[in-house]
Amino acid sequence: MSDNKDHSTGGEQQPREEGGAPGRVVGTPSPAAERRLLPEGDTAAPEGAGEELDEQAAKRAERVVASLFVLAFAASVAFIAYYIGWSGRDGGMHGIERARESNLWLGGTMTLAFLAMAVGITIWVRRLMTSQPVVQERHELRADDATRESFAKTFLEGAQESGITKRPLLRRTLLLAAAPLGLAPLVLLRDLGPLPEKRLRHTYWGEAVRRAKAQGKKGVRLVVDGTNKPLKVSDFATPGGMITVVPEGIEEHSEHPLNEIAKAVTILINVPPDKMSPRMRARGWDVNGIVAYSKICTHVGCPAALYEQTTHHILCPCHQSTFDATDAAKVVFGPAARPLPQLPLAEEDGYLVATGDFPEPIGPSFWERG
Amino acid sequence: MKRFTAWRRRPWAGYAVVLAALAAIGAIYAGFTPQNGRAEAAGIAQAQEDLENGRQLYNKNCASCHGQNAEGTKDANGKPLAPSLLGVGAASVDFQVSTGRMPAMNPGAQMPRKRPIPEFDVNIKTDYHDPEQREAAEKKKAQAEKNLADLRAYIASLGGGPAVPTADQVDPDKGDAAVGGKLFRTNCAQCHNFVGSGGALTGGKYAPPLDSDDVTPTQIYEAMLTGPQAMPVFNDTTLTPENKRDIIAYLVKTREEPNPGGNGLGRIGPVSEGLAGWLIGLGLLVLAAMWITAKKPKKLKKS
């Protein structure tokens, strides 16, 4: 304890000598000798602490612990009793009808049993067990110089004897042999799944439009996702309207309809034509203010479809990216980097049709997007 | 008498009786018809009176914001304060007033759902034991229903618009909850949550929860039809009345689903529930660890 005396907390003191461990420290001394974790003069416990107990307090604690143990006993008995007697009542063991009730009682009694036991043991340790302060010295982690020297000598001797320094041909061919194995994971990882190829660049709208054009039509009809009802321009004439649409025939003709719907899903919005920006009007992809945008957010691909008809904003619920439906879905707030791709629309026989795929890849950025 | 009996036996007597009966019916009908005309006239008068009542209610409760002729008002900068009510229809009035959103108490990002003002409060308690009290409450309720109907009729008379749906159109038992669930998840769940727990929008606006029983099927239908506040419109040609009934069936039946895991935490979703579990569970574990390892020297025995 001598070196703990007369030290103020100022930085003027010198580092202590090597190996000058304090005489009595419980726990790990700080490696930086001048910065101590314990306040000045703190000894872990007063001399002789914990060796003897206040008998009256100990008796009280003992009764508390004992009653907790009795409670744990009662709870375990209740668990068994409920399991045998009640949970199997009316229609077999743990019928599905009674699953909630039986879970509650079985779980509750078991929790009570374990918890009462644990709390009892903790109180026992804290209030009743005596403990002698134990001092354990901690040694330097660094091996002494003699050991380090002899290790280095042995290592070099081994290298000499193996001949790896003397025979470079062996050394180099061994490295050569190991190199392809090191590269093997690249090949193996690439084969974990099919490459995306061009699939991320196109949606089913493109294929559906091609199919429709082959039949001499202008484009593919838009149908309501869920009911497959084709939409007429007059059907969707109410200002402020919104609906989720997919290309007609996506469920019948595509190989993986769910995958295709997940990419092709589009929101159809009716915005007032006079509110549309000149840029968007010049594009001419709307039908009397009816516009269609990809529903997949360009940030990380959440469905962005929280359309507010008062502000004409489309909000993505994941990271609050906000797009302006009257200005080609320009990003007005949030982390999205690009506007939502717009689908070119036209009218054919009174029906709303798409005349092409989205002009750019939908959804978030990907490696080869460029 | 003898003469009458002989007359009765003539071959044309049967035809004569039929003719006489027809004549009698005609006479009676003619006697009643003017009375029917009077009843119709009375009905028209009653309708006029109802419209007048609606107009008075409008002037008292709505005109200060929506204008004397329901044309809407603007502030000094030309920014609309209250929208025009021409052509919004009975459905919109019924939705806004029966959910207590209108008359609005103070302008804000969004009008909250609240208890309707007493004149339109159709959900007052009427099951009193005291017959006198019950009668008074029932009378008040009938008046509130009449007031609401009159106001609806008045606004509808100004410019038409969607009507209040019939009871059959909003009957959850007649809808297909599976189709409704699909439509709800693709078109409504982004704002209202997949079981209708509601959610936040931009600038202090929010999508209100739909999972409590005071959100009636009629109100859900009217909201879809009219698109109140920031909500988009789902007109009857886009989502047909059957589709709307399916969505209502999904919402109402979801409310009745039990929560197998105990408290559903408002069904805010597995990620948020997991986060709550982590924070509360880990917090308790940290507290337990602190209690177990806390340093508490035992008292020395007094010597």
TrEMBL record, chain A:
GO cellular component, one term: plasma membrane
Cross-referenced PROSITE patterns: RIESKE (PS51296)
Region feature (Disordered): 1-55
Bilayer topology annotation: Multi-pass membrane protein
Entries under Pfam families matching the protein: QcrA_N, Rieske
GO-annotated molecular function: 2 iron, 2 sulfur cluster binding; metal ion binding; monooxygenase activity; oxidoreductase activity, acting on paired donors, with incorporation or reduction of molecular oxygen
Ranges of residues in domain Rieske: 285-354
CDD domains reported in the protein's UniProt record: Rieske (cd03467)
Keyword Oxidoreductase in annotation: yes
Major subcellular location class: membrane
UniProt feature coiled coil, ranges: none
Listed Basic and acidic residues bias regions: 1-19
Keywords assigned by UniProt, alphabetized: 2Fe-2S, Cell membrane, Disulfide bond, Electron transport, Iron, Iron-sulfur, Membrane, Metal-binding, Oxidoreductase, Respiratory chain, Transmembrane, Transmembrane helix, Transport
Cofactor(s) this protein requires: [2Fe-2S] cluster
Location of the protein in the cell: Cell membrane
Bilayer-spanning residue ranges: 64-84, 104-125
Protein family: Belongs to the Rieske iron-sulfur protein family.
PANTHER family noted in UniProt: CYTOCHROME B-C1 COMPLEX SUBUNIT RIESKE, MITOCHONDRIAL
Function: Iron-sulfur subunit of the cytochrome bc1 complex, an essential component of the respiratory electron transport chain required for ATP synthesis. The bc1 complex catalyzes the oxidation of menaquinol and the reduction of cytochrome c in the respiratory chain. The bc1 complex operates through a Q-cycle mechanism that couples electron transfer to generation of the proton gradient that drives ATP synthesis.
Protein name: Cytochrome bc1 complex Rieske iron-sulfur subunit
Organism: Actinomadura rubrobrunea
Automatic annotation (TrEMBL), chain B:
Keyword Thylakoid recorded: no
Catalytic activity: a quinol + 2 Fe(III)-[cytochrome c](out) = a quinone + 2 Fe(II)-[cytochrome c](out) + 2 H(+)(out)
Cellular localization per UniProt: Cell membrane
UniProt GO cellular component terms: plasma membrane
Gene Ontology molecular function terms on file: heme binding; iron ion binding; quinol-cytochrome-c reductase activity
Protein's UniProt keywords contain Cell membrane: yes
Membrane-topology annotation of the record: Multi-pass membrane protein
Major site of localization recorded for this protein: membrane
PTM annotation, UniProt: Binds 2 heme c groups covalently per subunit.
UniProt binding sites for heme c 2: C188, C191, H192
Pfam families, sorted: Cytochrome_CBB3
Boundaries of every Cytochrome c domain copy: 49-159, 175-255
Keywords, sorted A to Z: Cell membrane, Electron transport, Heme, Iron, Membrane, Metal-binding, Repeat, Respiratory chain, Translocase, Transmembrane, Transmembrane helix, Transport
EC number: 7.1.1.8
Gene3D superfamilies from the UniProt entry: Cytochrome c-like domain (1.10.760.10)
Domain of life (superkingdom): Bacteria
Residues annotated as binding heme c 1: C62, C65, H66
Transmembrane regions: 12-32, 275-294
SUPFAM superfamilies: Cytochrome c
Group of enzyme by EC: translocase
Assembly, per entry: The cytochrome bc1 complex is composed of a cytochrome b (QcrB), the Rieske iron-sulfur protein (QcrA) and a diheme cytochrome c (QcrC) subunit.
UniProt protein name: Cytochrome bc1 complex cytochrome c subunit
